[in-house]
Design brief:
The chain has 14 helices and 15 strands. With 406 residues, the chain is α/β, with parallel strands linked by helices.
């Protein structure tokens, strides 16, 4: 039994390596696969025949004018299978599906109500996953796996969501078991910011990325480093809590019980709180006008638009936020030395003036050799980044597409 298990495992990794080579090369033949893998031709032919029979890949004729026998190209079949991803925080849930080539073929979203508890959230999650499954009913190819980006902390084997301070009765929730019992598919869990970085690595850098630091700013601030093409993660999603770095000694109370954490200064809710406090002193009149005079209708999009129109109060707040964030990021950049800092969230929509100010702060605080060539930029993804990343994470766990293995 042990020998059979070893043989099966080796074949699994060989299959995945061949799939990754086909994915990464537009025109590749069986002979090319043999050269790149150094497997025997019989092994290559057997695995490729299995992949064609399963519908994961197909053959395409070479259309280039050539002398002699033309090669037959191997291509991933978009309908070779599907991966479902979902991600949520205290306010929104997003769901997405990727096909076998990593294309986004389905998306859905829904707002969470403030008083929704565990049961309501799980019911919402299940409903959206069922809708995604229904979207590909009748199409060739199977759904391989589901992955969910969970806010807060998970246990070490990532099967139970431990807690999140903004979600009602969200404690020790066996999300993995609940979903696997419901859908009879493999289910993977990770922190919702971690899976966002998978989207960037997989769909932006095609699985072969440089060093970068992914920074999510929403209800809190978390970072995920990708160094030497590997996400640096802890088992239970406890790493990357940049939001609890102390940046304002005389600031406001944070959810962790500390004073002046980055979260309490720059998170989405904190910024809305700063705007509402400013209204009481006649500040941000342009934003109040956008909201029709109702402070409860103010959004971060309005703040970003106001800053883009160079309204004085909004510009000042934007620069203050950039300085606070830049000071905290400087610590992480000095330790991890990324080439790029990617900002994700509403604040990323503040644009180039925001990034330029952050870059100035980093230049003052980061070692010169590390700062040289460092770029601060906005995420290329929209609000679906977590769901897309969760689907990419499911793809990685099922096929090891992203982390290249032998």
């Amino acid at each position: 039994m042990a020998i059979e298990s070893i043989i099966t495992t080796r074949k699994y990794y060989k299959r995945n390596k061949i799939l990754n080579i086909i994915r990464s090369n537009e025109n590749i033949s069986r002979y090319d696969v043999k050269k790149m893998t150094m497997y025997s031709m019989s092994t290559v032919l057997d695995i490729i025949d299995d992949l064609i029979a399963s519908g994961m890949i197909y053959e395409a004729d070479c259309e280039e004018p050539r002398v002699g026998r033309k090669p037959v190209w191997l291509r991933l079949n978009p309908e070779g299978g599907y991966f479902i991803g979902a991600e949520f925080n205290a306010f929104h849930l997003h769901c997405a599906m990727l096909n076998f080539t990593g294309e986004i073929i389905y998306q859905s979203e829904e707002d969470l109500l403030p008083d929704q508890g565990k049961d309501a959230i799980l019911a919402l999650l299940i409903r959206h996953i069922h809708a995604a499954i229904d979207a590909v009913k009748g199409k060739p190819g199977q759904i391989f796996a589901i992955s969910v980006g969970i806010p807060g902390y998970l246990n070490e084997d990532k099967s139970i969501a431990l807690s999140h301070f903004r979600l009602k009765d969200w404690e020790n929730v066996p999300v993995k078991k609940i979903l696997e019992d419901e859908f009879h598919l493999p289910c993977y869990l990770d922190n919702n910011v971690n899976v966002m970085a998978f989207a960037y690595k997989w769909l932006r850098y095609n699985g072969d990325c440089r060093d970068f630091l992914f920074v999510s700013i929403r209800t809190g601030v978390r970072i995920v480093p990708v160094i030497n093409n590997h996400l640096i993660l802890s088992r239970g999603g406890l790493s990357g809590e940049l939001g609890h770095v102390k940046v304002a000694p005389h600031g406001t109370l944070c959810s962790c019980g500390g004073i002046g954490c980055l979260n309490s200064e720059i998170s989405d809710l904190s910024i809305l709180g700063k705007l509402k406090a400013g209204f009481e002193f006649g500040r941000f009149p342009e934003i109040m006008e956008m909201a029709g005079g109702d402070p409860d209708k103010v959004t971060l999009e309005m703040f970003c638009e106001s800053a883009a129109q160079e309204h004085p109060d909004s510009v000042k707040l934007m620069l203050d936020l950039a300085n606070i964030l830049g000071e905290a990021l400087g610590v992480a950049v000095n330790i991890l030395a990324p080439e790029v800092v990617v900002l994700s969230g509403q604040l990323a929509h503040l644009g180039e003036p925001f990034f330029q100010e952050i870059s100035k702060v980093l230049e003052r605080n980061v070692v010169q050799e590390i700062h040289q060539g460092l770029k601060v930029t906005a995420s290329v993804f929209n609000e679906y980044i977590g769901a897309i990343g969760a689907a990419a994470y499911a793809m990685q766990e099922e096929f090891d597409f992203i982390d290249k293995q032998i």
